[in-house]
User: Fold this.
Amino acid sequence: MADPALAWKPLGTLKGPKGDTPTVAAATTATAGVVKRAEDITPLADNASLADVIAKVNELLTKGDAAGFLA
Assistant:
């Protein structure tokens, strides 16, 4: 039987067994551009075909907005 002290609370509470809340580190200047590029393409990726996503990435690459996006 699993130790209840090691079990996480039900999903949705976002708290671990010690009450700690997972956090996301703030973007640094080194990652801010990558995060921005990911935000640009995420809505498209959620609702588009693969061909649409590839076309959008190619568009960003030709404009220079996606430099390092695929790196």
About this structure: The radius of gyration is 19 Å.
